[in-house]
Amino acid sequence: MGITGVAGKVVNYVMKNPKKTAALAAGGVGIAALIGYKVATTTRKQANDQINHMLLMNPMLNPLGWFQHLVNPGKTEAGTLDNPFIKLIVDKNNKEYQEYYDNLSHADKIKEFYKNGGRGFLG
After folding, report:
1. Which of 26, 30, 66, 106 has the CA that lies 20 to 30 A from 100?
2. Tens digit of pLDDT for each residue in 33-70?
3. CA nearest 115: which of 52, 32, 14, 43?
4. Is the dihedral of CA 107, 112, 113, 115 positive or negative?
């Protein structure tokens, strides 16, 4: 079955089930909008922390240390029980963010602080 066969089946399904198709389309657009919003509003620090947290919480990648990060979800630095390879990646991510932050001007550092949820500036 080629592309024309698949397209024909899709057209037939849409013609027979217009309400289901509209609901699926609306759901797809909604999911795409949520993902787009998340991408557009996530700061660099939040994205870095989310990636580190995902790596540290994965029991397949981090068999000994994943539970300590499950209990302490705010901790995004590698600990003593974490896989050395995961620790290397997390430390590299944190170092790259720190270099990015160090190269910002003082005014940009203040903006970054508030974008990341800061409530007052002490610096």
Report:
1. 66
2. 998 888 888 888 888 888 888 898 989 988 888 888 88
3. 43
4. positive
Identify the pLDDT of residue 68.
86
Residue at 52: amino acid letter: N
Q: Say if residues 52 and 94 touch (Cβ distance below 8 Å).
A: yes
What is the identity of the amino acid at 13?
Y
Helices (H), the chain: 3-16, 18-41, 44-57, 66-71, 84-102, 106-115
Asked if 62 contacts 55 with a C-beta cutoff of 8 angstroms, the reply is yes
Helix (H) or strand (E) holding 58: none
Q: How many whole angstroms separate alpha carbon 59 and alpha carbon 7?
A: 41
Question: Would you state the structure tokens that stand for residue 21, as one six-digit string?
Answer: 């198709």
Q: Which two tokens stand for residue 73?
A: 């979800």
Nearest CA to 56 among 9, 90, 7?
90
Tell me what the mean pLDDT of segment 8-31 comes to.
86
